[in-house]
Design brief:
315 residues, mainly alpha, three-stranded mixed β-sheet, 11 helices, 74% helix
Length: 315
């Protein structure tokens, strides 16, 4: 590309997961399967928690929005990725790249905060069960979800504006399968100190708040469970938060692996693999985690399959 300002750029080229021509078709079918399972699983969770009368609790309200976020996150990335596996020119328009970048930030930040909200919900349910429906009322649930979306939208707009205000004069080839911060800024010939600082401060604050909320909530939950005298009571209390604990461990484990690895071992290829996991694999796994380990969800599936009208009638 001829050197110039970003205002003259009309397209970017995405290298993708791999630039090996022989791997493009096999990778297409692998990621098509992953995306298909993701859509099916998350739409099922959204549908079940919307229509089944026994899943109208705060926990399943938050789970529904986690499924919406997971579906949105994978949908921002996967369709363009799948198309690029099958075409020679793996291009994305300037505005398409900006939209994808903003959409990714919107959903990833929303997921970070939704997991924290769900941890707080489990803390109240186990540690203050008598006050649960007062502390986590319908209005509070809507407020928490709305704040998560509003904040994540503001972060997405701010950081996308910072990244796309840079000048790109050496190349328009992005070494990634979607428009992410690091590979985009790596192409810039401008001073990237400001956008880098904004990105790292935002990421650090978001992760600190979210991880602190999750760790404090589950520390108090574990202490409360250990104080329960009966083994059956401890098992029942633990089962109500086991699925969320698994989802949290997988999501934050991936993020911490990506951001806390030594700089000497850090590479864009490593970022790609971690990004595949938290943009495509985790959204596929979450519905499985919450359905396979959750008795209420499994029973709701049975009710809908055997007598779908009953779920609507009893609402």
């Amino acid at each position: 590309m001829v050197p110039g300002n970003l205002s003259h750029v009309t397209t970017f080229i995405l290298i993708g997961v791999s630039d090996d021509p022989e791997l493009q078709v096999p990778l297409f079918f692998i990621f098509l399967t992953i995306y298909g399972v993701t859509v099916t699983g998350n739409v099922a969770i959204i549908t079940l928690t919307s229509i089944d009368s026994r899943l109208q609790t705060p926990m399943y309200f938050f789970l529904r929005h986690l499924a919406i976020i997971n579906l949105g996150n994978s949908t921002v990335i996967a369709p363009q990725m799948l198309v690029n596996f099958l075409v020679e020119e793996k291009t994305i328009s300037y505005y398409g790249c900006a939209t994808q970048h903003g959409g990714f930030l919107l959903f990833i930040v929303a997921e970070i905060f939704m997991l924290a909200v769900m941890a707080y919900d489990r803390y109240v349910a186990i540690c203050n069960p008598l006050l649960y429906m007062v502390v986590v009322s319908r209005k509070i649930c809507i407020l928490l979800v709305a704040l998560a979306y509003i904040y994540s939208f503001s972060v997405a707009v701010t950081l996308t504006s910072c990244v796309f205000s840079m000048s790109y004069c050496s190349s328009n080839v992005i070494n990634h399968f979607y428009c992410d911060n690091v590979p985009l800024l790596a192409l810039s010939c401008s001073d990237i100190h400001m956008p880098e600082t904004a990105i790292y401060i935002s990421a650090a604050m978001d992760l600190f708040f979210s991880i602190t909320t999750v760790l404090v909530s589950y520390s108090l939950i574990i202490l409360a469970i250990l104080r329960i005298r009966s083994a059956e009571g401890r098992k029942k209390a633990f089962s109500t938060c086991a699925s969320h604990m698994v989802a949290v461990a997988v999501f934050y484990g991936t993020l911490l692996f990506m951001y806390l690895q030594p700089q000497s071992h850090h590479s864009l290829d490593t970022d790609k693999m971690a990004s595949v996991f938290y943009t495509l694999v985790i959204p596929m796994l979450n519905p499985m985690i919450y359905s396979l380990r959750n008795k209420d969800v499994k029973e709701a599936v049975k009710r809908v399959l055997t007598n779908p009208c009953q779920s609507f009638k009893s609402r």
